[in-house]
From TrEMBL:
Its EC number is 1.13.11.93. Gene3D superfamilies: 3.10.180.50. Belongs to the 2-oxoadipate dioxygenase/decarboxylase family. InterPro entries: HGLS (IPR009770). SMART domains: DUF1338. This is 2-oxoadipate dioxygenase/decarboxylase. The lineage of its organism: Bacteria, Pseudomonadati, Bacteroidota, Cytophagia, Cytophagales. Keywords: Dioxygenase, Iron, Oxidoreductase. Its cofactor is Fe(2+). It comes from Fibrivirga algicola.
Length: 300
């Protein structure tokens, strides 16, 4: 395995252990005969959240995947949520492997209230140099361990709840750090009857999976080419500094249908590859999918 493969495998292994919906959805698909094994699923993209502070944020985080050959693509701005984001295309020399795209976002900490900034910096200021610079990025196991280790001390419940009241994104990151926020099933590569987002959502709803309803269960880009949905984040029992415990939002599962671009509509289905489908992301869709971890969804 290459270092990138080791990192991706480690991320998915720990994420799957932490998010029961992953195994439950894959089991339901196998039980229904849609797939023979979990490996039949194509992972459209994985997503990460970061804090926009010195030595951390996107400027630090992206070094990992840029080193592995990912290409930085379009920027996104989420004004209301005070976020910046980019997506990263998989290495061109591994196009045949259909590796996941990366979607990474960053909280504009300086746009928050003075109190929220104070709380965040109380933790992040302990990081006095870019931790990625100290990593051997060719050591996949070391990078995998880094992505699952504490970046700062455990927050107190009071600090978490103060952040939660102002920025649910900030609260998520202060506790969860670089944990994989979600992975995404490419529904367009599933068999007929399940390969549109509408059919797939119907399949999930029949099995009582709880889906994010913000902006409608199915989020559609203006061009109609990117159609997305997601589960609501799984709640986890979190232990805070001082021994307090509280149930908080963990991670979730996303589903994406990327439709064939008009100029390739004439191609036979068995000739359609990733390059023939709508690529990239849509800010309006992503804005609502962020809310899969928000109390308005998890508390329904």
């Amino acid at each position: 395995m290459t270092p990138l493969d080791i990192v991706l495998s480690g991320l998915m292994r720990r994420y799957t252990e932490r998010v029961p919906d992953v195994k439950n959805i894959l089991y339901a698909l196998q039980q229904q005969g849609v797939i023979n094994a979990p490996e039949a699923i194509e992972n459209d993209h994985i997503a990460f959240r970061t804090m926009g502070v010195p030595n951390l944020g996107l400027a630090s985080f992206e070094k990992i995947f840029l080193h592995y050959g990912y290409e930085k693509k379009e920027p996104y701005n989420f004004a209301e949520k005070k976020l910046n984001a980019y997506w990263y295309a998989p290495p061109a020399d591994r196009a045949a492997d259909n590796l996941p795209r990366i979607f990474a976002s960053e909280l504009r900490v300086g746009d928050l209230s003075k109190e929220a900034q104070r709380i965040i910096h109380k933790y992040t200021d302990t990081v006095t140099s870019d931790p990625v610079d100290a990593l051997d990025l060719n050591d996949g196991e070391a990078v995998d361990a880094f992505l699952h280790q504490p970046l700062w001390k455990m927050p107190t419940l009071a600090d978490y709840q103060t952040l939660l009241a102002e920025s649910e994104y900030a609260a998520w990151v202060i506790y969860n750090r670089y944990y994989l926020n979600h992975f995404t099933i490419s529904v367009h590569n599933l068999p007929d009857g399940y390969n549109t987002i509408d059919e797939f959502v119907s399949f999930l709803e029949q099995r009582c999976f709880k889906l994010n309803s913000s902006g409608g269960v199915i989020k559609v880009s203006p061009d109609g080419g990117l159609r997305q949905a997601s589960t609501v984040a799984q709640m986890v029992d979190a232990k805070f500094a001082g021994g307090d415990t509280f149930r908080i939002a963990g991670s979730y599962v996303e589903f994406a249908e990327r439709r064939v671009l008009p100029e390739f509509a004439h191609l036979p289905a068995d000739q359609i590859t990733r390059q023939h489908r709508r690529d990239g992301f849509e800010a309006a869709n992503a804005d609502k999918i962020f809310e899969s971890t928000f109390v308005a969804q998890t508390g329904r």
